[in-house]
User: Which sequence fits this backbone?
């Protein structure tokens, strides 16, 4: 409801104005002030949207009252009500932001028309403001999804139906410069703090998706402070959000580009292996191993992930058992070893999840107190994940990939996201992504884009078709976006390509 304040030192004038307004604008909330000073005080508490301000009043006049009110609440609108139809008064009022004026006396119709016009402006501004807030809220939700998707694509092999570089253009944070990864291990109830964590990271980096207890964070380096100082301060800030909970943070080394960020993630993961130290966070370089041993651990981790993706379960089993044997020979405390092996099993489960294979979070059924029990529990969990892998892929026909490719070629002009394609062919979107990377050497979206560009090239042979028509015909709703993608794929704009194709100006 719109609130209106009538300011006049004449009670009869105030009452008469209120009667007119209540008759023609029954939804208004109206209050009265008997002079300029009272109006200033009332504006602070009533916060009107519109003020009908008399100019000549004892003490503080109307112009002085407008100036005082506007200094505190610049959004309030004013209509001057005065018997003084002089240029100097109107010029001063307009300079202070008055929208219009009403002369005393005026006919009711004139009063209603003048005030109605300003009330219409207020309602229009409110509608625009509500629409703006709605758009901001929608964009913020979309931005959160984009941010999570970027982290997923950078750190894992999970591929979505939008290029990561195009997603990056949607984010208003720097995509270049030094960065590092932090992995936050939450407690069982820690996911309730996800929004707080995201808010703490906002403007300083990107938050990934929570998987089990692991939450990856990509953090951008700040100028004017050292990497360790920045990481330490941020780790303490994040840990304070779960002060009463058993959280731990692993911190990877700084890398100079997004292409290298996966290594920092793997380092951060290794830094979370032993959570029993005095501090609740650890840098990769602080892992109690020799530098060459840490480097070998990184190599082993990368090899393990590749073996899991390829389904080389004998090699996976050998790597895990060899790791346990090495830890035992080195006299590593069992508490550290079980944490290290559990971390490896978590990683295995996540790689399977990225491939579209559903597995339960790997947890020991009993707490290993010796290496024999640790081996037995690790083998049990690996066998369960191996069986899930075998079951999943046994349902896939040998020619499924060719069928999928043909379907995309036939329907590339339609709105076809990776999820909708997956529903159509009854396969996991992540599994489809994996097949394209392994069998085609490209991402799903690259193949879909190639199909669309091939069709567009064929349509460009027809000079009667406009670029706009072609963009719609091959599956793009925005001709500008089509042109951008076409140039990215062919190194030429659609007009340049057509000009070259037809040998003439188009």
Assistant:
């Amino acid at each position: 409801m719109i609130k209106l304040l009538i300011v006049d030192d004449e009670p009869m004038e105030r009452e008469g104005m209120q009667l007119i307004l209540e008759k023609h604008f029954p939804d208004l909330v109206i209050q009265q002030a008997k002079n300029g000073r009272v109006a200033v005080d009332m504006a602070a508490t009533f916060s009107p949207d519109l003020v009908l301000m008399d100019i000549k009043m004892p003490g503080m006049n109307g112009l002085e009252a407008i100036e005082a009110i506007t200094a505190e609440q610049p959004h309030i609108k004013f209509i001057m009500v005065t018997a003084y139809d002089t240029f100097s008064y109107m010029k001063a009022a307009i300079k202070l932001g008055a929208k219009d004026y009403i002369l005393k006396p005026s006919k009711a119709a004139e009063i209603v028309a003048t005030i109605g016009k300003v009330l219409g402006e207020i309602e229009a501004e409110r509608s625009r403001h509500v629409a703006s807030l709605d758009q901001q809220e929608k964009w913020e939700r979309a931005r959160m999804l984009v941010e999570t998707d970027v982290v997923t694509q950078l750190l894992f092999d999970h591929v979505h139906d939008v290029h990561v570089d195009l997603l990056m253009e949607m984010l208003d944070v720097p995509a270049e410069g030094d960065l590092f990864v932090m992995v936050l291990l939450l407690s069982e109830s820690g996911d309730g703090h996800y929004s707080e964590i995201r808010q703490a990271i906002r403007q300083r980096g990107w938050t990934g998706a929570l998987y089990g207890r692991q939450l990856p964070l990509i953090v951008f380096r700040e100028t004017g402070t050292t990497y360790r100082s920045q990481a330490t301060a941020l780790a303490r800030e994040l840990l304070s959000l779960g002060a009463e909970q058993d959280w731990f943070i692993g911190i990877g080394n700084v890398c100079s580009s997004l292409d290298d960020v996966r290594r920092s993630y793997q380092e951060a993961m290794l830094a979370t292996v032993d959570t029993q130290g005095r501090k609740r966070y650890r840098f990769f370089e602080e892992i109690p191993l020799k530098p060459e041993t840490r480097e070998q651990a990184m190599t082993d981790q990368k090899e393990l992930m590749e073996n899991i993706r390829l389904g080389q379960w004998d090699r996976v089993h050998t790597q895990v058992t060899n790791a346990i044997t090495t830890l035992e020979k080195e006299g590593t405390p069992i508490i550290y070893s079980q944490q290290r092996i559990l971390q490896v099993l978590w990683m295995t489960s996540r790689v399977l999840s990225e491939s579209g294979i559903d597995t339960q979070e790997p947890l020991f059924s009993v707490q290993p107190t010796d290496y024999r029990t640790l081996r037995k529990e690790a083998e049990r969990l690996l066998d369960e994940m191996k069986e899930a892998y075998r079951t999943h892929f046994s349902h896939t026909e040998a020619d499924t990939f060719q069928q999928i490719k043909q379907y995309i070629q036939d329907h590339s002009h339609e709105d076809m996201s990776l999820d909708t394609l997956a529903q159509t062919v009854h396969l996991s979107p992540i599994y489809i992504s994996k097949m394209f990377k392994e069998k085609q050497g490209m991402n799903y979206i690259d193949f879909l884009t190639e199909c669309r560009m091939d069709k567009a090239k064929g349509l460009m042979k027809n000079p009667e078709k406009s670029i706009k028509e072609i963009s719609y015909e091959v599956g793009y709703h925005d001709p500008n976006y089509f042109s951008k993608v076409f140039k990215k794929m062919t190194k030429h704009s659609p007009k340049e390509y057509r000009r070259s194709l037809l040998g003439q100006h188009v």
